[in-house]
Fold:
Amino acid sequence: MATTKTTKTTKSNAGRKPKYIDQVEFEKLCALQCTLPEFECFFNCDGDTLNAWCNRVYGVNFSEIFAVKRGMGKVSLRRSQFQMAQTNPTMAIWLGKQYLDQHDDPKRYERSETTEDKIDRFLDALTDNLVNNTTISDKDDSEPLSDNITAPTDEGETEGET
Structure:
């Protein structure tokens, strides 16, 4: 009878231990909207290590979790902006432009003319010009649509015919 040897496979502890990154500190840095190099410096690791840690802890990469966690920083910034606006409106405006996508360009908020609006404006101009027997022009002194087409006279003939 042949004997078979069975071997147990055990998990090897080879390789580096995962870098310890304090989750609370990580989320605080996200709220402060730190840059990736600042995270790397704070935790003394590189971006790949941060990405691997984020995948282990949150199940998504660094940029995805950063986008979510920085929201608390925006809330805090907005709160501070309201408080600061009472004493330093210039700083509040600057912070809003930098981090909250606020702008003081009034044209950003005006309703732009849609294609439908342009068509309506064109049809109105066309109708007015046909009724007034003039060409479509930006000039005030519009020309007639054609020299051959004129309005009928009282005698039943059109002007220009002899």
